[in-house]
Structure formats: C-alpha cells, structure tokens
Amino acid sequence: MATSNNVKILGSFASPFVMRARIAANLKSVGYEFLEEKFGQKSQLLLQSNPVYKKIPVLIHGDKPVCESLIIVQYIDEAWSSGPSIMPSDPYDRATARFWATYVDDKWFPSLSGIARAQGEEAKAALIQQVRDGIALLEEAFPKCSKGKAFFGGDEIGYLDIAFGCFLGWLKACEMMNGIKLIDDATTPHLAKWAEKFCSHCAVKDVMPSTDKLLEFAKVLAAKFKAAQS
Fold first, then answer.
1. Are residues 149 and 185 in the same domain?
2. What is the spatial distance between Cα 12 and Cα 7, in angstroms, rounded to a whole number?
3. Whole-structure pTM over 0.70, yes or no?
4. Which residue, 75, 40, 34, is CA-closest to 55?
5. Residues spanned by the domain of 43
6. Tens digit of each residue's pLDDT (9 = 90 or more) over 91-129
7. In the beta sheet, which residues pair with residue 10?
8. Looking at the domain assignment, is residue 33 inside a domain?
9. CA angle at residue 218 from 66 to 10, to 5 degrees?
10. Would the pLDDT of 2 be above 60?
11. DSSP SS3 for 207
C-alpha cells in the first residue's frame, strides 16, 4: 500500500486545477509538500516532471510524477486507502461523473475563462450566457448524481464535486468583476446549497483562495494579456 511519505504537489494557489490535487489529497489524509511555482516561470522540477505539457499541477509520489489534474485525483484515490473513496463504486455512476467532469473541462470552463478576454460587450454577454447554460445543466444533473444527498458524490465529496467545485472561487470573482450572479438560491438552489457545503468542507476551506486574492491575481492576468495583445 502506498504511503504519504515524499509527496509533493507542484502548483499555484490560484489554479483551480491544482486545487483538485490538493482537495483529493486532503480528503484521503495524504500529507504533502506544496511547492508554489512562480507566475510566468517554470521551475526545473516542473519541466523535468512534466516534459510533455510543461504545466501544473504535478503530483510527485516518491520519485514518480503524475500529471493532469483529474488523473492525479484518480491516482490519489487508488494509491491511498485512507479516507472516503473519491470515485463512485458503481460503474454507471463512475461513467456519469467522468462525463460531467469532461464537460466541465472541455465545454464549460473555456467559456468561463474567456469572459475576461472577450472583445466587446456582445462577445462577453454571449460567454456569460454559455456559462449560465452550463450551470443550468449541472443544476439539473445534481439531484440525479447526488441521489438526494449533500454532494454530487453522495454523502461525501467525490470526483465530480472536485472537478466542478475547484472553480467556485473563480466563479465568485467573475460575479464580482461583472456585476452578475451565476449561482444563487433563486435560480440554482441545488448548486447554491452544494457550493456552501463544498467550500466549508475541511478538505477544501484551507485551499480555496479568497475572492480578494483572486481578484488581485486577475489584474495580473489581465495586464499580461493586454501586453501580449499590444
């Protein structure tokens, strides 16, 4: 059985994808050293550990690197028996969770991340609507996945909770930057309750960045994007 000795996570406090690895490790009570990568730079350890994509997060277990956030989550679940299972036990439930996690990464997140870079109010409004549409789909999926319990994974945080929940900090920052509401009691009651429970969970609350900190980081990203455009 794998142990928690010599576990490192390479990442950034602001990265939702890095949060996935950290939440999974916390859920499984895996001790790890968090190595913060400097913004705009790539450490030699990162380049050596992830020579294909050269990006965070990377989990290093002993001398073995594991790359890509959702792969890391599954690895942690399989390598450590401590804590609750992250992946659903039922094959269909596992397939459903993987389907929605892929949807979040491939279809929904690009719309969210594109809002800050949108050229013009019309383009921004279209992206915000795409984000709302995706949230509506997840609101509809929640009762089916959760089976009436607190999380997508049931009684405890699971794979889809981690895959989607890691973006809640940036969703809040997006709401503040654009004067909108994306998750609230009126339009998305299931997700509103879920988000509150997710963010207050002991595996999450210490790694979820504050909105103010993310807003400051967003200014840095915006300046970098503007410089690249000029």
1. yes
2. 16
3. yes
4. 40
5. 7-79
6. 999 999 999 999 999 999 999 999 999 999 999 999 999
7. 35, 58
8. yes
9. 20
10. no
11. coil
Residues in a beta bridge with 11:
36
Structural domain tally of the chain? 2
Three-state DSSP at 205 gives coil
* 153 and 192 share one domain: yes
Tell me whether residue 218 is in a domain.
no
In which band, very low, low, confident or very high, does the pLDDT at 223 lie, cut at 50, 70 and 90? Answer: confident
Separation between Cα atoms, residue 32 and residue 190, nearest integer Å: 33
The letter for the amino acid at 115 is: I
Tell me whether residue 40 is exposed, middle or buried, using C-beta atoms within 10 angstroms of its C-beta: 0 to 12, 13 to 18, 19 or more: exposed
The last residue of one of the domains, among 79, 107, 135, is 79
One domain for residues 66 and 99 = no
Split at pLDDT 50, 70, 90, the class of 224 is: confident
